[in-house]
Amino acid sequence: MCEIGFFAPEALTDSQFHKLSSFIHTNVGIKMPDEKRLMVQSRLTSRLKSLKMDNFDDYLKLAFSNTPEGNEEIALMINAVTTNLTNFFRENAHFEYLTNVVLPELAKKNEKKIELWSAGCSSGQEPYTLSIVMQEFMRKNPGKIEDYSILATDISSKVLDKAVDAVYPMSEVESLSYDLKKRYFLKSKDLKNPCVRLKPQIREKVVFERLNFMDSVYPKTTQKNAIFCRNVLIYFDKATQKSVIRKLLQHLVPGGYLFLGHSETIFGMELPLKTVGPTIFKKE
Ligand SMILES: C[S@@+](CC[C@H](N)C(=O)[O-])C[C@H]1O[C@@H](n2cnc3c(N)ncnc32)[C@H](O)[C@@H]1O
């Protein structure tokens, strides 16, 4: 006979939560104050369910076992505790600034290939928006910029898999103009599950890689003209925010641009950055 009912493991105790929260804070950077205990418990419940475990002691034993299975579980735990909310053309003023200020400036300097980085790219909507913005600029300003490339990184393997697929529910692009949808998206024929996929010309310009901002050194990559690191730093404490921005700046050309999320600030950080717009900074 099959059992019917909700799966509910034993509640996460304070000491179990502190073990988890200090691990996440140290290794992922995300602040985990006590108010997040219920959120962590509910997000990890599906992991316990998949593992057929009914208590967090067993779960922690596995995750911190220093075995290949444990390390795999840590990656899944990180997927579960990160917040991946995003959408196409989010905080559109930044994309307008890129189009109206940054790209004309680079074209004037005769930069033929533009290098961009979406750092904390989640499921791909931000780097694909950048790719659309680049193609729109090149279409409207022929010959000014010839090529571009976008590096897109995140710590979560789950969102990166989704990003590589580049398939999204139709509802996510409803607010885009008819022209943009027609030019850059393919429509599924499945009427029950309407979705879209970015066209190859948009996808092939974006390279996805897994990167943890807490790593001491970021991978060797070309110097970027602009870095978008938006709605990520809010989850970190001030010291971590500053250290992440410093590491990002090593990959930004002098005069390059850093875009942060609308509620993020560099106030009091003494960084070689000049504010040029709302949460838009230029490297000195
Ligand atoms: C809220 S999303 C922001 C997505 C996009 N930048 C935007 O503004 O729409 C934050 C992303 O940061 C990622 N993240 C959190 N901690 C990270 C870390 N230590 N290293 C790299 N990425 C991290 C999460 O996995 C998540 O996908």
TrEMBL record:
Residues 11-284 form the CheR-type methyltransferase domain. GO terms for molecular function: protein-glutamate O-methyltransferase activity. It comes from the Bacteria. It catalyses: L-glutamyl-[protein] + S-adenosyl-L-methionine = [protein]-L-glutamate 5-O-methyl ester + S-adenosyl-L-homocysteine. Its EC number is 2.1.1.80. InterPro entries: Bact_Chemotaxis_MeTrfase, Chemotaxis_MeTrfase_CheR, CheR_C, CheR_MeTrfase, CheR_N, CheR_N_sf, SAM-dependent_MTases_sf. GO terms for biological process: methylation. It is an enzyme of class 2 (transferase). The keyword Heme does not apply. Coiled coil: none annotated. Keywords: Methyltransferase, S-adenosyl-L-methionine, Transferase. This is protein-glutamate O-methyltransferase.
